[in-house]
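Batch job 17 of 40 flagged for manual review because the log was empty.
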Amino acid sequence: MKKYIYIIFFAFCTISCTKEVVLDDILDATPRLVVEASIDWNKNDDEASKTQTIKLTKSTPYYSQDYPIVTDAIITVTNSSNESMGTFAYNTNQQLYVATDFNKPTVGETYTLKIEVEGQTYTAQDTYTSIENPNYIKQGLNRDIDSEGIIQVDLNIDNEIGVDNFFLLKVEPPTIVSVLPEYSNADDSLFSEVPGENNYDFTYFEEELEPGDLLKISTYGISSRYNDFLNKILLTAGGSNGPFSTAPATIRGNLLNETEEENRAFGYFSMNEYIYIEYIVKEKSDEEIITEL
């Protein structure tokens, strides 16, 4: 089943998650800060990774299509020694807070996001997590859904030995196949740590995928807490009534309001190392096609 985190996150930000939804509350909901703060460092491209962005908006009543951009915040990201990782300033053209001088994070270190806006101070923490370089991409045919076979792509990667790994996979197909990326997350609890047996496959298949299509594939190392957050979102979306059904409990991110505890923000702050790969889909074949990376 496809898991579109973007759609689910939108639902999370705009839908009441109590057991009984009152229409007046939906129409007159108090706006809350919405934070999109994913610091993603390309393991193989330090120079490009020096530019990082954070987006701040306000939530709105359910039927509104206007999501106000927050432009007057002070944003800092610091390491465990309280040293600044980069200078964020609002960019009018991009409608984002942009830092072009972000420093390379250290694997295993915990970082703090601080947002000061409208007399409120919001903070969040996350631990920067590593990811191994993938080994190869394997293309074959999946005949479980269609007897004629649909194209399946497997990304093979090693599970780090002696490390608790948590992963996020993002696949961006051509827009003619899907206008949204597809996401999946996993942990290494079921993966081997025996040398030589510690590799495994992330699988992607799509009925409309054709030879010559370009897949943009990103694999992220994510923290345990971020993985738990994603699991809750995906579990909520997996219910029989779909992502717009009443959630069993309020799904909170890791953002705290230090000024007014109940006026919490929506969203999540994460620090992730990732690998980016572009793969051109090969011709259909009954034989597996291996592309070494």
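Reviewer: the log was empty due to a logging misconfiguration, but the result itself is present. Residues 1-28, 238-249 have pLDDT under 50 and may be disordered. Unflagging and moving on to job 18.
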